[in-house]
Specification:
The complex is a heterodimer of chains A (about 190) and B (about 160). Helices cover about 80% and strands about 0% of the residues of chain A. By secondary structure, chain A is an all-alpha fold. Chain B starts with a helix and ends with a helix. The chains are: A mainly alpha (about 190), B mainly alpha (about 160).
Amino acid sequence: MTELAKEIIVEAADGNVESFEKIYRAYSGFVYNVALRVVNDAGAAEEVAQDVFLTVYRKLKTFAFKSSFKTWVYRIAVNRAINHAKKRSKEAERSVAFDDTMEWRLAVDPMNEHIDQAHREKVVSSLLAALNPDQRVCLVLRDLEGLSYEEIADTLETNINTVRSRLKRGRERLLTLSKEVAEHEM
Amino acid sequence: MKCSDLREQILTDYLDGRMEGAAREALEAHLAACDECRAYSAMARKAVIEPFRRAERAAPPESLWQQISARIEAEQGSSVTPEPGFMAKLKSMFTLPKPAFAAAAVVALLVVAVVTTRLPRVQEETVTTTMTEEIDYMSDLLEGSNHLVNLEGYGTVIEDYFL
């Protein structure tokens, strides 16, 4: 995604709603998708996305153009999504992950190529539900949004080795679950 | 390199297309020779990478922008504009509204006036009176005046009897 023109950001910072809508149109796909995949609930994803864009609007004046505007928006979106996911109590988190995993074990095989879109969607949400929020965000940014390791590290304000490590652990976990499903079906 | 080390690379840099040149050639040579690692790589691609790459991107509902723009317009209506920059915040810390500034100035002038005029005079009068009384008392003692006794009396009949 290309960067927006500086004038648009400056006008939006001065309160121009039309310019702010251009910012919204440019980034709403990313913000909503990341929120949806990380919080795993459409209603909560809308709440997170709304919160992200209101935060962006209120803080526009403080953006100093010293870094990429896109990364700045991505960072706000990812932080809000992670915070929302972590806010849920550990007990609820465990319960949801367990239920989703069980449902996935009984109904969906991620290696089955002949599943329809609805089932494919279920596979993705079940896979993501089995991960912790930090691993989930890394996988979403890499595999669904196509960000490079460097872009993920910038967005999360961490280093590439941490990104690589979270991807590795997350994928190892998913691979273990896939093997369990395969064994269950035999 | 051990199979476990190579599998770590398979799960990250190799499947993400970040491996190039000699490192990639070495890994692929190993995959060609090692059945277990080859199966591991194929399963990882199929079970962990492809489901995400095939997933469709959800579009945000159109009502989302309407909600956001309504909130922004409400904030603008209540004159809650975007957050001011750092310099504006700094300036506002040292700026008082005009009526508040005027009131503060009047209070400050009154305090200065009282401190520099009224309080020293009161203190000076108190000191002068006390010193005068002390001098009179000492001179009465030296002169042996019975005025002191009378001063301590209560003017009652019983007092007159005993004294």
